[in-house]
Design goal:
The chain has one domain. Helix content is about 75%, strand content about 0%. The protein has helices at about 5-10, 10-30, 35-60, 75-95, 100-145, 160-165. α2 runs antiparallel to α3, α3 packs antiparallel against α4 (about 75-95) and α4 runs antiparallel to α5.
């Protein structure tokens, strides 16, 4: 009996992908709609990366591994999009010309949100490469520690070895 493919499917990931497809299609066909589709793309991509990182943490904790959220590149990238890019995009809509000192508020906001986004992206890149080098070193140590063992042959032996007996 085959397992049901719907039980294996990640429902939240599927919903985010469908929403992303809808937003990308809307952004493609309705170019004059303004920045709202860009905000939708940023929101969905940020949520997707954040969800993927949290899912990795939960899976690691099921295997009794202790992972911190701030060492996961997916979580950091999702936060960079949600806390850096999204407010930066929303700043244009919410601060209009009727607000006193609107240009100054926009400039300060863009500097702050760009710094937040850049800091989180750099942390994500650093964690990604750190984990990659740690994995490589761990694999090298495992290869050095394990002696080369030949598996016992259970099948028919070659003709040369049978003649020697």
């Amino acid at each position: 009996m085959r397992p049901n493919p719907l039980k294996q499917m990640d429902v939240i990931r599927a919903i985010l992908v469908i929403l992303l497809i809808i937003v990308v299609i809307g952004s493609t066909f309705f170019r004059n709609s303004g920045i709202h589709y860009d905000i939708g793309i940023a929101l969905i991509l940020g949520l997707d990366r954040l969800y993927a990182g949290i899912k990795q943490i939960v899976a690691a904790r099921k295997h009794q591994q202790d992972l911190s959220w701030y060492t996961q590149p997916s979580v950091l990238l999702g936060l960079a999009i949600l806390l850096g890019a999204l407010p930066w995009l929303l700043l244009e809509d919410f601060v209009n010309a009727a607000v006193p000192n609107a240009p100054l508020i926009r400039e300060i906001g863009s500097i702050v949100f760009t710094a937040v986004m850049l800091g989180l992206v750099l942390a994500a890149v650093y964690c990604f490469f750190t984990q990659k080098t740690q994995r490589r070193r761990r694999q090298e140590r495992m290869d050095e520690a394990a002696p080369l063992q030949r598996p016992a042959r259970s099948g028919p032996q070659p003709k040369e070895s049978r003649e020697e007996e």
